[in-house]
Amino acid sequence: MESFTIRTPCSSANIGPGFDVIGLALSIYLELRVTIDRTKTSSDHPLNCRVTYEGEGEETGEVSLDPSANLITRVALYVLRCHDQRNFPVETHVHIVNPIPLGRGLGSSGAAVVAGVMLGKEVGGLHHLDDSRLFDFCLMIERHPDNVGAALFGGFVGTYLKPLAPEDVARVEIPLSEVLPTPAGGLDTGERPPEPPHGIGHHIKFPWSKEIKAVAIIPNFEVPTAKAREVLPKVYPRQDVVSAYLPTYKEQLNLTFNMQRIALLPVALGQSPPDPELINLAMQDKLHQQYRQTLIPGLEEIVQSMSPSSQEGLLGVCLSGAGPTILALATSHFEEIAERIIARFRKENIDCKWKLLEPAEGTKVIKA
Ligand SMILES: Nc1ncnc2c1ncn2[C@@H]1O[C@H](COP(=O)(O)OP(=O)(O)OP(=O)(O)O)[C@@H](O)[C@H]1O
Ligand SMILES: N[C@@H](CCO)C(=O)O
After folding, report:
1. pLDDT tens digits for range 183-218
2. Together in a domain, 162 and 269
3. Residue nearest to atom 8 of ligand 2 (CA)
4. Which pLDDT value is given to residue 267?
5. Residues in contact with ligand 2 (CB, 6 Å cut-off)
6. Total number of domains constituting the chain
7. CB of 116 closer than 6 A to ligand 1?
8. Is 41 exposed, middle or buried (0-12, 13-18, 19+ CB in 10 A)?
9. What's the predicted TM-score (pTM) here?
10. Are residues 291 and 174 in the same domain?
């Protein structure tokens, strides 16, 4: 019996202004405990794979145990089929242990995609696939690189895409339904799915000051990322994004909002000791948070009212990923910070739990 464990961290994307660019891997881990019994010659399970699950959403059955519907095993199957392996090896058992809250802005789907890609590599014996190639596979599925970049590589990362050749641009525009067909759409057409072009995504690791910890305040409702992206505008006011020369200092200030902050953020969070006022400024955003307030009652007041001058130990507050989780970066007074944010959500009749998290290493395969 072969066995191994895949361990992937959760992540918080954006950290304020770094929309779809910056990600931070954090210390809640999705685990896949995998066994392959090669003594069997056939399997009663679809695709030769038995899926079991414990963790978030277990009671509601939110995570499918059908390997052709479960996100992790579908992703693994995509990797396998790109390498002419139609099914899992006979007989594979994937036991998923998932403490990452679903649909809360802590990168549960990013972790599932990264773990799924790694699962495909490991069960398929595809040892030539290095992390940078696995990142290409992840990006064919989760099309923004921040969560998957953090979950795969670990730490505090900036992610970026290099321009692709015209034929490769066409390939990345292939709809997700062709990459991960639903069972109804005919999961096994016998054809190879579209492979990712090489070198779609890249990342750079930023330093993280050892004093800074992350307080995650997790409301008891889900905001699916797709819904949180629908509320964003198609066109942004120029002053929220770009830099321009303007005659007055005041106008110049307004016209450089997100770009100034994203330039500060990686430096500010790497400095030791941390500068609370600088970090608080660097974590402000005008590209996504204000639009998502409609989905997250209390968000506006939390972001505006919590600052280092009003709360000891606090460095800055932002929406984690697409929300509804709030991420507070702090050096002390963690419980007090969490309780203040929880109290604000309570006014909206929203219950929350909170966790103190630290930056995490990237995805690991642990062989038994
Ligand atoms: N361990 C898992 N196994 C299978 N499916 C999962 C797993 N984790 C997440 N998913 C799928 O991903 C969905 C949640 O993805 P979604 O992108 O909406 O939120 P998120 O990734 O938690 O938040 P964000 O992207 O804002 O950080 C779940 O409803 C489920 O379908
Ligand atoms: N950058 C993404 C992260 C969520 O997956 C967003 O904010 O929509």
Report:
1. 544 456 677 888 999 999 999 999 999 999 999 999
2. no
3. 322
4. 97
5. 13-14, 19-20, 144, 146-147, 225, 228-229, 288, 321-322
6. 2
7. no
8. exposed
9. 0.94
10. no
Same domain membership, residue 212 and residue 137: no
* Ligand 2 centroid to residue 14 C-alpha, Å: 7
Q: Find, among 346, 84, 357, the residue nearest to 213 by Cα.
A: 357
Closest Cα to atom 23 of ligand 1: 105
Residues 190 and 239 in one domain: no
**Do 232 and 121 reside in the same domain of the chain?**
no
pLDDT, tens digit, for every residue of 257-287? 888 899 999 999 999 999 999 999 999 999 9
Same-domain pairing of 194 and 261? no
Picking from 151, 57, 150, the residue whose alpha carbon sits closest to that of residue 103 is 57
Q: By residue range, what is the domain housing residue 332?
A: 207-357
Can you give the CATH number for the domain in which 82 is found?
3.30.230.10
User: For 117-164, what is each residue's pLDDT tens digit?
Assistant: 999 999 999 999 999 999 999 999 998 899 999 999 999 999 998 888
What is the 350 CA–ligand 1 centroid distance (Å)? 21
How many whole angstroms from 126 Cα to the centroid of ligand 1? 26
CATH assignment at residue 248: 3.30.70.890
| Minimal-distance CA residue to ligand 2 atom 1 | 20
List the beta strands (DSSP E) in 87-224. Answer: 92-98, 156-161, 201-206, 213-219
Residues 244 and 168 in one domain: no
Q: Which atom of ligand 1 is nearest to the CA of 110?
A: 21
Under 8 Å between Cβ of 314 and 333: yes
Which sign, positive or negative, has the C-alpha torsion 215, 303, 243, 166? positive
Q: What ipTM does the predicted assembly reach?
A: 0.97
Q: What are phi and psi of 268, to 5 degrees?
A: -60, -40
Q: Are residues 186 and 256 in the same domain?
A: no
